[in-house]
Amino acid sequence: MAAAVSETVQRFTAETLKAASKQSKGCYVVPLRLRRAIKNYIRDQEDQHMKRNVSRLSESFNAIKDANLQLTASTARELIEDPLKYVGCSQRWKIKSNYGDIGLKYRDDQTIAYVASRMPAVFSACHRVLTEVKRRLPNFEPTRVLDFGAGTGSAFWALREVWPNVTKSVNLIEPSQSMQRAGLSLIKDLKNLPDIQSYGSIQSLSQNLKNRKDGKKNRKHNLVIASYVLGEIPSFKDRITIVRQLWDLTEDVLVLMEPGTPHGSDIISQARSHILWMEKRRSRKLAKSSNQGSKDIMTEKCGAHIVAPCPHDGVCPLDNSGKYCHFVQRLQRTTSQLAYKQSNGIPLRGFEDEKFSYVVFRRGPRPSEAWPLDGMKFDTLKEQRDKMNPEDFESDYDDQIDSEPEDIFDDKKMIKYESDINEPYFTSESDAEEETSQETTRADLGSGWGRIIFSPIKRGKRVEMDVCRATNNEGTEGCFERVIVTKSKNPTLHHQARRSLWGDLWPF
């Protein structure tokens, strides 16, 4: 296999390598149309106690997080029967279903507070993840989408930004009626919407599809998203049941996202391990089958591999390491967040950091690709200087004493939301605020791309990065290691490393 994918022909240049590696974004600006939709929604509700509701909602999330960390499957039911036993009056009742506890109930005031304070951050994290899916799967177009735990529509808004006018139908599953109403209210002024159907549970969706003539044909979705919902299910057994159901409804890509906490990371890790184990077992069974039809199925859609963030499909090298896999997306706070969030008397910063953990699965085996640095030769700093003309030495000297790059998150350089204040309330699909899309080199799904797990440490002419990487060409095993790049040995990669961010890829 290694011989089949190894190449001696150079596949990348220094510039295309840097473009392919770039997956993160510095400070995200929430799109104008979503900011306006949130402001319109809040204005229509006329809630006089917004700050207090936002504060209580935040306390409630913290209480639920603490309780879930203490819960086991045996105590999950006790939380339903006596919520005050664990977390006091701030705990909200869980919603019961045939397959366990599926989420939290939201009163209307809690839903309004969520839209004002949490929706922009959750949207930004979803946008970051779906953008990488689009970049790494350029031919993938999610025409039929399932959003489980849709809430107020954060993932749907991100989907519309990343793949505008591509999606034909969306099935939303959200047990909270208050959340459903808010989500529909937020999109009421958008144009060219896909066919949207809302359900309270997976069972309701399955029953509806069963009763439709084309139900069997439309049962599978080529993109399934579950963002910030699995952590609301305290029972491990119930969570795994739901993950299996979501995977069964997935035709191509499944995206799971949770808050970037140790608990959220554990949930993603458990789901990752289970789906990969389940598909490996299925592949082994089909391989043993003497039926030719079964073997044909195995070669097409059998198996699963990770699109992101993991560069391999082996055991997570962070397991039992005391560290947990998570990422961060910085976003400028919207005017609603600045207006209603509490800061204990200290002025709020113009930005906030949304930490998240995620995993993106795709059906089928991992593609075999040559590693990105195959065929590439880099000059050392001495070799580069030997090739220079005398007049180039002055600029080269400036490069050598280059100080640390300016902090891209400098609060003083935040873009002001003047449009939120000065422009009228309306939502238009023609608002041209999106970034200009630029064609970039694709980082393929072969095993030669590592992932920068934490913020790189920059020490003058030396950059240290913690990288999760594959250890073989098939991507079946991986490791976690410290990569050190120095300017003297490889100025080209050193230049790239100095501009790499937490969450970017690193070539091998």
Automatic annotation (TrEMBL):
Family matches, as Pfam families: Rsm22
GO CC terms: mitochondrial small ribosomal subunit
Keywords: Iron, Iron-sulfur, Metal-binding, Mitochondrion, Transit peptide
Predominant location: mitochondrion
InterPro entries: Mt_RNA_Methyltransferase, Ribosomal_Rsm22-like, SAM-dependent_MTases_sf
GO molecular function terms attached to this record: iron-sulfur cluster binding; metal ion binding; methyltransferase activity; structural constituent of ribosome
Gene Ontology BP terms: translation
Subcellular localization(s) per the UniProt record: Mitochondrion
Function of the protein: Mitochondrial ribosome (mitoribosome) assembly factor. Binds at the interface of the head and body domains of the mitochondrial small ribosomal subunit (mt-SSU), occluding the mRNA channel and preventing compaction of the head domain towards the body. Probable inactive methyltransferase: retains the characteristic folding and ability to bind S-adenosyl-L-methionine, but it probably lost its methyltransferase activity.
Protein name per Swiss-Prot or TrEMBL: Methyltransferase-like protein 17, mitochondrial
Species whose genome carries this gene: Deinandra increscens subsp. villosa
